[in-house]
Amino acid sequence: MSIQSICRYIYVITFSLVTILCSSSAYAQADTARADTLSGKKVRIPDSAGHQLCLGIDMVNPVRNNFYSDRYGYEVEGDYYLRNEFYVTLEGGWGGSKVTYTDLKYTTTNTFFRLGFNKTILPRDNKKDWDMMFFGLRAAFTPIDRSAATFTILDSLWGNKTGSQGPTKFNAIWAELTGGMRVELVKGLFAGWNVRGKFLLNQKSFRNEAPLFIAGYGKGDKNAVFDFNLYISYGIRWKRKHFR
Amino acid sequence: MTKWNKYLPVILLALCSVSWVACTQQRQPCLTPKIASLIMETIHFKTDTSTVFVDTALPSGLFIPLTNIGIDSIKYPLGSTFTLSLSPDTTICQWRFTSDTLNAVAYYDTFTFYYQRKLQFLSNACGYTDFYSIDSVHTTHHIVDSLHIINTSVTNNVNTKHLQVYIRHNF
After folding, report:
1. A125, A131, A158: best mutation site toward chain B, by most B Cβ within 10 Å?
2. Which of A52, B21, B52, B161 has the fewest CB atoms nearer than 10 Å to its CB?
């Protein structure tokens, strides 16, 4: 078993543990705003936690870029606290790959977007507690530009053949399951990580041109991949109307 | 959730380590054949008028590509299944064939393949190759009685037979 296989299994196990933890802890979740019943009429108690817009950058990809000479990627994220421990998230980034094998050469670039939500699974200590352990879902999209590819078909019988194929554009769509945690180091400044299981939804449409690397996703010829992010982010907060 | 603060560095360190170890840069090995293979089976009728045919194991089959630039010939040991390839530069190619090079008088037949090429991306590990669609196959008739194309699509799938070659019953 190769090191890569072992690492893949560690990723899978880690991700599974997070998912199991999420599902088991969901019962213990105490929402800060909940529906209450008063004389048969539902009254929504306002969320006292306030508003928070958090913007962050991923620190793993810049490190990875130094280890890989054939690919690069950058990611940023933003999330906004809605209520009931739900955060709407928007993530994005850009990257590319450069294939320079002896028999295959091309480059790809792409800019990606992810939209989804995070749900906190641990109760707050108080309304100023913005630490979170969460799970989430994402829908992701990226248009991919692939340059003209030059290739050599190695054939010892008939002789090698060199050719090229023109540039192409195609789209990749995938879904993500994610889980992780984020803690407030100092006021407003957060650090956190998450693991992601990514599932490509339309690989058939570009199977014959699968790029080496799709920024935001990973290996273009895999239907499912696991990934890891480490975010440093800053939260901007303001109070809700009811609690001013 | 302050109790998580003290565990954070350890968890981060572990996950970062896993992430870095996983970042080994190498090209994945190519695990599929890179060249499309035409697989041919030799069979013969039991008698001149029989409709029953059986596999014919050629004692020492020799295949010679007539338009090659490299290898002169491919010699096979005793067997009835043979693998050929088609020229990626043209849409016609020829192979000479004899059933037994050990025989003092060797009779040769020539197969002429007419086909269309289609460029195919296999994977980043394997690169590109050509797949083929056979239009027709012609042959001379010294040893060969007739040909039957079973499958016109020649790909890198090595489990598909494409051509049945009926050997004359007296060979």
Report:
1. A158
2. B52
